[in-house]
Design brief:
By secondary structure, the protein is an all-alpha fold. The chain is 77% helix and 0% strand.
Length: 214
């Protein structure tokens, strides 16, 4: 009892912020889920922001605070999968050698995506047929690669090596993109982690032709 009594009381402001962030995350996911229900039922183009807001029980202005465009609604799940894995890397950046940490990042992204395969298939099908969705997805992938490169640069033994960090991040995002696209082509029947192991094996064994100095 004495040990418990000696523990500091939680900061009410921190508790409030935590609850607020949790509520915001739940609202964001609810809006995204309702949007996809309507996209599946009525089609992407026929679904309006007002319909999505009504289904989620929020006003259009609230919806726009979470999702400034309809395209951002489509890619929300993929974006969350990517950036949650990046946050995990930042939280445990020194816990493992960099190659192991990068492998964990890739595995975490694919693990979360595999929890909702129907959503991922729908995202990539829409991206394949809709230029604005495809552009939004490409922008998120570019941003993730840049943020990963910044994180990798700080973990390299040789400091200030942006080119090495950039190439490292490019390999990571290319593995994710290639694996997910192969999985989509299989109509969700392939195992993402098996595909990822195969892709990394090709890189590890030098079986991927790369440009070389003349």
């Amino acid at each position: 009892m004495a040990v418990l009594a000696s523990l500091p009381a939680p900061d009410p402001e921190e508790v409030t912020m935590g609850l607020r962030e949790l509520k915001m995350a739940r609202t964001r996911r609810l809006i995204s889920d309702k949007a996809f229900e309507l996209f599946a039922r009525d089609g992407y183009h026929r679904t309006t922001i007002e319909q999505i807001a009504a289904a989620a029980g929020v006003g259009p202005r609230t919806l726009y605070r979470y999702f400034p465009t309809k395209e951002t609604l489509v890619i929300e799940f993929v974006q969350t999968s990517l950036f949650d894995a990046l946050a995990e890397l930042r939280a445990h950046s020194t816990a493992a050698p960099l190659p192991v940490a990068l492998n964990t990042v890739i595995a975490n992204v694919l693990r979360v995506m595999a929890t909702d395969p129907g959503r991922v298939l729908a995202v990539y099908r829409l991206a394949g047929s809709n230029a604005s969705v495809r552009a939004q997805l490409a922008d998120v992938l570019w941003q993730w690669r840049e943020e990963l490169a910044e994180e990798v640069e700080g973990l390299l033994e040789t400091p200030n090596c942006r080119m090495t960090a950039g190439l490292t991040a490019a390999f990571a995002i290319n593995i994710i993109e290639t694996v997910v696209l192969a999985w989509v082509r299989s109509r969700g029947e392939a195992d993402m982690h098996v595909l990822a192991d195969h892709a990394m094996g090709l890189l590890r064994d030098g079986k991927i032709p790369v440009p070389t100095a003349g």
